Amino acid sequence: GIAAARPLVCMPLFCDQYEMAESVSRHGLGLVYHKDELLDGQAQRLCSLVRQVDEEPLFRATVGRHAQLVRIRGGCRRAAEVIESIAYAGADFGELWQGAGADEDAPSPASAAPGPTLLRNTALAAMEQVKRPPNAAEYSAP
Q: What is the pTM of this model?
């Protein structure tokens, strides 16, 4: 994926995947292969798209720049750690994801990362979304 500096070929199937695939294409991070193309027997086109994103230097350069941004900002790793610790141990075991003696919402001087309470609340909200299927209003455009 992007974090590994690899161009993408997206095949959206439902929900927000169409928007994400279009965004990948618009930003030059990869190409889109629609499921209808596969159903129409256009498997060769999929092979062609994979070759195209692999061989065109512009895709690799663009994805490389985005991968650097992911590494510089580093929030993905920390968010994943928090979500995993809550998923495995539950939100009551805050010592797994809260720094010892850390001020709840104060960013550390070394980084502008959000405090543990904000991370916890974000992780809990994400877990709620997984438990509850979204309603139709959440899918409609504003």
A: 0.53
Residue 101 shares a structural domain with residue 115: yes
Please give the backbone phi and psi of residue 19, each rounded to the nearest 5 degrees, phi first. Answer: -65, -40
Range of the domain at 14: 2-72
pLDDT, tens only, 99-138: 544 444 444 434 444 456 666 666 666 656 555 544 545 4
Q: Does 94 lie in the same domain as 39?
A: no
Do residues 26 and 32 touch, judged by C-beta distance below 8 A? no
What secondary structure does DSSP assign to 58-84, as a single string? HHHHHHHHHHHHHHHH-HHHHHHHHHH
**9 in the same domain as 65:** yes
Q: Which amino acid is at 27?
A: H
Domain count, the chain: 2
Q: What is the pLDDT of residue 129?
A: 55
Residue 97's SS3 state is: coil
Please tell me which residue, 77 or 61, carries the higher pLDDT value: 61
Q: How far apart (Å, rounded) are the C-alpha atoms in residues 107 and 45?
A: 48
